[in-house]
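Job type: complex structure
Entries:
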Amino acid sequence: MANADFHGCPVRNVLDRIGDKWTTLILLRLSREPCRFSALRRQVPDISKRMLTLTLRNLERDGMISRTVFPTKPPSVEYALTPLGRSILGPLGALVLWADERFSEIRENRTRYDALEAG
Amino acid sequence: MANADFHGCPVRNVLDRIGDKWTTLILLRLSREPCRFSALRRQVPDISKRMLTLTLRNLERDGMISRTVFPTKPPSVEYALTPLGRSILGPLGALVLWADERFSEIRENRTRYDALEAG
DNA sequence: CCGGATCCGACGGGATACTG
DNA sequence: CAGTATCCCGTCGGATCCGG
């Protein structure tokens, strides 16, 4: 297994999750209401079936979301946040807020930096 | 340029940074006091010169840290948080706290999930 | 409808050697 | 001391096809 030296670091484990491409978007979507697979696909634009499945599996493995199968025909599956999953919404929301407030400033910094580099 | 569709999303831009392997560790280290290149290398275990340089450059480009060159011989360079960089410590700290509090629970969930998969 | 299996390109990041 | 340049490999993630 790779990165064996990081298995014991809580911060790295959490950042590896929320830092990936889709996890945060899924969590934010599920924070509004439980959601089925197909509905998630439509509401999280551009995600592939493969990555949606993998992201949901990882979140389920961590105990952040629950997976409920309804034996209808064809079957339907509903995903919802667990208490553990809901508990990260606070810290995550603070970060999202920070991003919204400061991003224009960051973007200005980047263009200015890049302009100086070009000269 | 890749991921052109994400350039306008504040959340993705921020998560792409703090989600990478070293940025958060650097920020936390600099939150205690300004620090020189070599000191950072020693205090952030296992980081390579290459990745330390790249991470610092990205943070400087975003305006999160400042870079001050002292024309001594040999030269020394000091990195420090800017006000913008300091402003993310709150949200980041909340996340780190959450990680520390919940990681044991997450790890138990993972081992239980993996045990069921194996059976 | 909800996935799993496979193939493949792109990118992050480590190791190493060189520079001012 | 503080980087830069090059090579290389593992992983992430998209596309596609197959199955219950």
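Summary: The longest helix of chain B spans residues 89-118. Residues 36-38, 49-50, 52-53, 69, 72-77 of chain B lie near DNA strand D (CB under 10 Å from a C1').
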